[in-house]
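Collaborator request, handled under Task 6.
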Amino acid sequence: MTGQQPTASFAPESARDSAFLKACRREPVPHTPVWFMRQAGRSLPEYRKVREGIAMLDSCMRPELVTEITLQPVRRHNVDAAIYFSDIVVPLKAIGIDLDIKPGVGPVVEQPIRSRADLERLRNLTPEDVSYVTEAVRMLVGELGSTPLIGFAGAPFTLASYLVEGGPSRNHEHTKALMYGDPQLWADLLDRLADITAAFLKVQIEAGASAVQLFDSWVGALAPADYRRSVMPASAKVFDAVKGYGVPRIHFGVGTGELLGLMGEAGADVVGADWRVPLDEAARRVGPGKAIQGNIDPAVLFAPREAVETKAREVLDAAAGLEGHIFNLGHGVLPNTEPEALTRLVEYVHEQTAR
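Structure tokens returned to the collaborator:
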């Protein structure tokens, strides 16, 4: 990884004119681009086959396996972008945090971080810590050709929530207790996580990722004033750290209808909306100068084809006046989704929006 931040992308030139990257830049597109969060995963039988007997974190550290899994939905669904197969806790594992991803539970941290002394366990991430990521991204870029690869990372708040709670949480009580009770320790924790996250994204960009997405899965648990004061500075630091690479930066959270404007302010070029807010209203809240990503409810894919197409049409109609729109779900693909439903949805969006 270079010391000086470059001013140009490392991504292949062949991907630059893709519908996905054009939409990110709010340029005219040949059709509305489509990709799905968690498109490479449990809904695909070929994914379950190659992952058989391999723990989640182990699978994230095998470049050939990461490459195969990332490519699977591109082959099957003809989506307009691939998203790098990994997990948001990979950089934490790489710097020595004792954690594991337990099936049916999620990331579990052996010793939660709740004190100033605990903070010292979070050292900086180096490219050598995640050399398998560099290798996998380079392999993917070679395979994908003109299809862009999206790199990704967990946002500081969501990573902090896992670290402080010790695992997934419904109410985030330990997290909020720390945020309200020791604002300085909280700020220092998020600042350190911002550095780790930025370093993880830089590795992916410098290996050839065409765009990056910052997932703030749990940030919808916060009120806007708390987000602005206690979270936004760290997210903004991440976006600012990768700004000079010239790749689009996407920001997404769940249940973030009240935060959309602030999430845009944090520095993203594209803001993702979940299904709770219509896209035209999401765009109004985000404000001008940003592309919008979303936002059909993932559960709709379990309905008959006609119902899926009706809901997709609603999303496309709501996005009709927007400068840049990337069609996506309002959250990740649910594990029991029929793959054919996703393939048909991509075809429908492409057909309906062909210019």
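The cover message to the collaborator said: "Residues 183-207 form the longest helix (25 residues). Residues 108 and 250 are 27 Å apart (CA to CA). Please let us know whether this matches your experimental observations."
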